[in-house]
Design brief:
This protein has about 210 residues and is mostly beta strands. It contains three helices and twelve strands, in the order ββββαβαββββαβββ. A seven-stranded antiparallel beta sheet has the order 2-1-5-8-9-4-3. It has a three-stranded antiparallel beta sheet with strand order 11-10-12, with no helix packed on it.
Length: about 210
Amino acid sequence: MNAKAFRSLSYGVYVISTWDRGRATGCVANSAMQITSSPATIAVSINHDNYTNSCIADCGRFAVSILSEQTDPSIIGTFGFQSGKTVNKFDSVDYEVRGNLPIIKDACAWIVCEVIDKMETDTHTVFLGKAVNADVLSEQDPMTYAYYHKVVKGKSPKNAPTYLTEEAPAEPKWVCGICGYVYEGEADFESLPEDYVCPICGQPKSIFVKK
């Protein structure tokens, strides 16, 4: 079976947020969809290993911040390649509370949901949420998963439902050892200033390895 066929399905890029006993937390997800219109119901798929999973279960509510093509890629790094168990992710991101849940300001829209049901798979929980509030923040185009891969050059966290083991590049490239971002600039990587950081996860130049 050619698993790459699944990449022909349409996905977006979202931050799913909730409360951890009063502390804002969340994670990146690419599997979120509206499954009914009336009442509006949203489904999100969250890996069992993501700390956000248990927080949604405890809180009973979650929010979907829909990222745009202009969203700072470092937000994806913050929410996709760190654990909310050990890092206060919202400390480094501008956010506000809308519908009683934390919402990313650098997004094009948001939806707040109350959990009404869930389904367990071997690796993920699919939470079903009734939409109780929503709004548009900008007219910017939503970021698609394809845009994230092809333009932002980002990689999937290993907990993502659509994660595939990446093939090694044909020619040696400098790759971030944390998020897998591939540096493809015209300048030689070694000549970059020492304060260069990964545009996705913010890790220093020393983290990059040649592959």
